[in-house]
């Protein structure tokens, strides 16, 4: 009691539950025998749910039962068995929209345990061979907006392997002399130079990052859109406030030689800001430290390590040379700082080779000024220039850091002066207000005394008048 379905994506062997569902199995076997399902499409695929077929019109609204074709009624009754469940991939059941209205349509499940379909549809078979075809070919098929596979999946032939039921009367006239010719659908070809989804996403993200960098360059927040942070510098944060530069350098030196290790501190108080930058000699040591030191415990603090995203050195070169400083100038300054070179103002010696006009113009266009940082034509001149250094006591980082501290100190001093003048003005107003209050008090006192004397004088005058009137009566 089995049927073989040859599809465009592989063969499916369906075992039938003839004992539990004799009518449904008879309908399916006899329709396969008259080649009713040949060239039918799997017209709907719902990923990780079911796929539907059995409609010769390929619309989901057609299809007749074998009993209707034999003139014995349009439908056949449901045969729902409590023993049969939608508990596996490949369960085959009738696809009816109303109870007891079963036709030729059926569905096949594409995942396990679809419990809420139990008791609603007649389960009459299960896919015994070809479950991999369901999971790997039909389930992941690309679908259109209507849920139909873009590449047609079609039943090409049906073969009845075993039929325990006798043919009903009149079935012989429905059996064709030969099987209908199988329809071969045009195979959709992939686009030329088709890219993987991950490659497309990466290309889109790269383009967006480039657009943001160009926007920052236009706004003046980035020296150059193509500028990248160094690959040999690590950013370390969540440090203990008491961790020192030497301690951190000793810890990270196990991965390779370190050029520079600096814990960033507050310029005013000198307290640690709890993050640092560690610069290695090569990129490999930096990568090893990144993978090994993440979430390590340093001075009772679990640190966080990441690759540095700072372009501060390039920024300093950009600010020093102005808007005309190029990316090459920033890279040159970066290389100079990495090599430990010193830079100061050089005085051109008498025997040094001077710049020709074209070189001087090119240097000026890059943002340089004549008379400072000369580029000599030979190594002897270069050594003489190095011997003539006067201001090269500190490297670029120290000079710029000192300049930033001076600027911030002047700003704070200016604020302190403003606050002091504001307080003095307030105290002056308070003093003037107190003097005005004293004047008012003295004025009130004088006015009160004058009024009191006037009242006494009025009382004396009235008393004299009374005494005069008394003498007149006597």
From TrEMBL:
GO cellular component, as recorded: nucleus
Keyword S-adenosyl-L-methionine: no
Enzyme class: isomerase
GO function term, MF aspect, one: peptidyl-prolyl cis-trans isomerase activity
N-terminal signal peptide: none
Occurrences of domain RRM (ranges): 232-310
Compartments reported by the entry: Nucleus
Region entry Disordered, spans: 321-474
Keywords: Isomerase, Nucleus, RNA-binding, Rotamase
SUPFAM superfamilies reported for this sequence: Cyclophilin-like, RNA-binding domain, RBD
Residue ranges annotated for the PPIase cyclophilin-type domain, each copy included: 6-160
Composition bias, Basic and acidic residues: 392-474
Entry EC no(s): 5.2.1.8
Primary site of residence: nucleus
Catalytic activity line of the entry: [protein]-peptidylproline (omega=180) = [protein]-peptidylproline (omega=0)
Function: PPIases accelerate the folding of proteins. It catalyzes the cis-trans isomerization of proline imidic peptide bonds in oligopeptides.
Family recorded in the similarity comment: Belongs to the cyclophilin-type PPIase family. PPIL4 subfamily.
Stated name of the protein: Peptidyl-prolyl cis-trans isomerase
Species name: Vitrella brassicaformis (strain CCMP3155)
